[in-house]
Amino acid sequence: MNLRSVLLFAACAALMAANLYAAEPAGTKKLSEVYFTHDISPEGLMKAYKALGRPLEGKNVAVKISTGEAGNNHYLQPSLIGPFVKSLKGDIVECNTAYAGSRMKTKDHRETIEDHGFNAIAKVVIMDEFAETELPTPKGSAHLKSDLVGAALTNYDGFVILNHFKGHQMGGFGGALKNLSIGCASSRGKSRIHTANRTDDLDKMWSKIGETPQKDFIESMAEAAGAVVNFMGDKAVYISVMNNISIDCDCNGHPAKPEMADVGILASLDPVALDKACVDLVYASDPQKSASLRARMEKQLGPHILDHAEALGYGTRSYKLISLDNNEPPSTKRMELGEEMKKTYDPAELPENWSPIPVGEPNDAYAEYFIGKSYLYPLTTEQVPSFGVTFEPSCRNNWHIHHAKTGGGQILIVTAGEGYYQEWGKPARKLAKGDTVNIPANTKHWHGAAPDSWFQHIALEVPGEGNSNEWLEPVDDSTYLKATTENEEKEVKNGIAVVYYSWSPDGNTRFAAETIAKKVGADIFEIKAEKPYSSDFRTCCDEAQPECRGKKQRAILPIEGLKFENYSLVFIGSPNWWGTLAPPVRTFAEKNLEELKGKKVCLFQTHGGGGMQNLGRDFAEIFGDKATVLTPKAFTGSSVRQSVEELEKFAAERAEN
Length: 657
Ligand SMILES: Cc1cc2nc3c(=O)[nH]c(=O)nc-3n(C[C@H](O)[C@H](O)[C@H](O)COP(=O)(O)O)c2cc1C
What we know:
single chain; Jelly Rolls; 19 helices; 8-stranded mixed β-sheet; Rossmann fold; 3 domains; alpha/beta; about 25% strand; 32 strands; binds flavin mononucleotide
């Protein structure tokens, strides 16, 4: 990629950020101030706090952070926040979690807090250790009348909501609003938020979560956060640190490695503006590296929390980013890149021998159906009308259909550069010189250049009866970026998928799956039961036993993004349940027999001491001679994290097979 291409790509992302989650134009509303520094250090944190002009020294201050699940080391480190917390003589405050793990029970939570080094910098108060209290949600709340928070919250008269901004499995992202809502809620309060008021009973939470529309959950978080914001009033400051930006939250004991670079520290008196600025900075960062996080945020409707929070009136998405670094703040930089994006490329810069077909004239007649500039060179208008079409980098045509009663459609022959072709509902196909595309009649599709390359193809109009073209909506930036980045991701993979089910909070099978996938560069997919098993071990055992004994299926959720045609080898991971496959794994294998036909399948399992038991046999029985079943392997669950070498050896050997 040359510099110009890099700028273009960055600009593309910047524009996307602007388009998707644009701060409202200045002048329409009062802008909240958000301070920014690149300096992720104790000094940077202090600088961000001081900029807010709301001193809390001398007050009884609570600093609300996430202390991080055991096994996670992405949380805000005591070495980073210690000097700041000490300067305020504040208490660190937290609440117990609602999921089984190292912080669900106060005793375990205290151990994790000690292990993570927080006792060394402050007194740590678990706000819901003894009691909870009820705070009214803002007027206009659609789901929650009140929020149940750890009672100790009300002991303080100064608050620092100190957030680690990163992705979140359920909320899409976690920043200030997540810390205020789920973070301050008691266990019952968390159940209430997660289920949009369906239950306060933790035992029923997981089943009710299944019934709760994602949008309602996101809105409930905004409502609960509003309850806490309104309670704290002008006694609170909000600070977010954008470092270790994994797609997974600090509540995950085995988070994905961060792909994005660290960004900086942001501070505001408006938590909505603060989260909005963080989200925008994700969208303005390297589009390849932020792709997974953006995908997660969008899939979980994460940014919708900002719309709802603003509608509830306790903050605004309209903000002004103010740099504390004696240079331009990132938002200004994004605007400059945006200007760069508006520049067109000059085809005269293309090398002479770039293509045997001339670029031709600007395609003005059809400009309204293209994003970016394209050029047309008529080759022949007789017999089979044929044109050379040249696209500048990132230029693409709108979705369109070549209608025909019989025959019809179009053939593309790529003559230079790199581009993409995508049919509606399918992944995009990357194109290079010499590729041909047969576009069937009556099929909605688009084609165009790669983000960083000129592209040229010949378009042949296939004769037919009743030929006509229908131009449809433009291929918006997010569709285009998704199509082009997804394709690139796939290219580096080598046709191996790892599909697994894992139930316990330790995630033994998940760990094995991740290790295998990493070793062989495979895509990884999780099987999830439509109705999750109880999170209580004994109840889960009771639920699973008749299913396992009867070799019954347990309905599973569709696995997003799993396209069997991309893989020739599929590793399938299961915990050992009652000596056989966990029922969701059986369901996956039995339901996808046709898709897995002719492929290699390989079982790996983790167990609690029983070893392979009947899993290998039952697995092979399902596939019969439909697939090539490779030799399975069992790993001891409790020591799976010490078995990395063995897992890698297994993965590499089976992949070579
Ligand atoms: C319902 C249930 C049944 C189990 N049955 C067995 C068993 O028959 N044999 C065995 O060795 N382990 C058994 N275990 C233990 C799990 O196989 C083991 O802890 C595994 O590593 C958990 O994987 P996970 O963390 O991915 O869920 C069982 C666990 C559960 C929850």
